[in-house]
Design a protein that fits this description.
Blueprint: E1 2-3, E2 12-13, E3 19-20, E4 25-26, H1 31-45, E5 50-55, E6 58-62, E7 64-70, E8 73-79, H2 116-128, E9 133-138, E10 145-150, E11 153-154, H3 155-175, E12 179-181, E13 197-203, E14 206-207, H4 219-230
Antiparallel strand pairs: 1-2, 3-4, 5-11, 5-13, 6-10, 6-12, 7-8, 9-10, 13-14
Helix pairs in contact: 2-3
């Protein structure tokens, strides 16, 4: 359980498993139950006893958005004072020209990084919720693409933490009067948002991916990479 920092009244966030009443086992289509079974399967293979996952979620923080899809037509419009298209626009307080260009937003510092303070607030809230933040920075795309990296964890725990991170990002953005999205491609012509994942398998506390093979990897690591390539379409 995690104490929700965004509610006026004390509120606990609980993450639960879905149980099939007829068997009292995890529901087959519940992603969390599937993750539990995957962890148990790993142990049964003897390859390792623990798998660690470290995803790096990317997201945009926009000032506001408009969208419509009905029988009369469809549209969407994104508003962002730091968008590359704002360089010749009048904005409140004056246009300082601090607008990262298309694919020009990777790792700037303020004032070009408009989102440093809001990301810091997100990280502080995540720490309150029990997560260990390791890094945060502006990402490649214009108009407020960001990334927050937190410490790796085991599969089920990490999946729960990712959901908490998204909840936190949405709520902090809303508190600042802005809106966050984890959509993969909200801007045509600039980088989309991904969530690449660092992975490793341990056995008896030892990383089984370290070895003397290619790039300092073990056969286990190379077979693991091959398995991801083989099942890439399904993944």
């Amino acid at each position: 359980a995690v104490l929700d920092p965004f509610t006026e009244e004390p509120t606990l966030i609980l993450v639960c498993d879905i149980i099939e009443p007829s068997t009292m086992q995890g529901y087959d289509r519940d992603p969390r139950a599937i993750a539990h079974r995957a962890e148990e399967y790993l142990k049964s293979t003897g390859i390792g006893d623990t798998a660690f996952f470290g995803p790096e979620p990317e997201f945009f923080i926009f000032d506001s958005v408009k969208f419509k899809s009905d029988i009369s037509g469809s549209m969407f419009k994104i508003f962002s004072e730091q968008g590359s298209w704002m360089s010749d626009q009048d904005v409140e307080g004056g246009n300082k020209g601090h607008c990262p260009g298309i694919k020009g937003g990777y790792f700037p510092v303020p004032p070009f990084d408009h989102d440093h303070e809001i990301r810091t607030s997100m990280c502080n809230a995540l720490e309150e919720m029990g997560q260990t933040v390791e890094v945060h920075h502006h990402e490649v795309a214009t108009a407020g693409q960001n990334e927050i990296g937190v410490k790796f964890n085991t599969l089920v725990k990490k999946a729960d933490e990712v959901q908490t991170l998204k909840y936190c990002v949405h709520n902090v953005a809303d508190a600042y009067g802005r809106t966050a999205t984890f959509m993969p491609k909200p801007l045509y012509g600039d980088n989309g948002s991904g969530m690449h994942v660092h992975m490793s398998i341990s056995k008896d506390g030892k990383n089984t991916f370290a070895g003397e093979g290619y790039a300092g990897l073990s056969d286990t690591a190379l077979y693991f990479i091959g398995g991801i390539i083989k099942h890439g379409k399904a993944l």
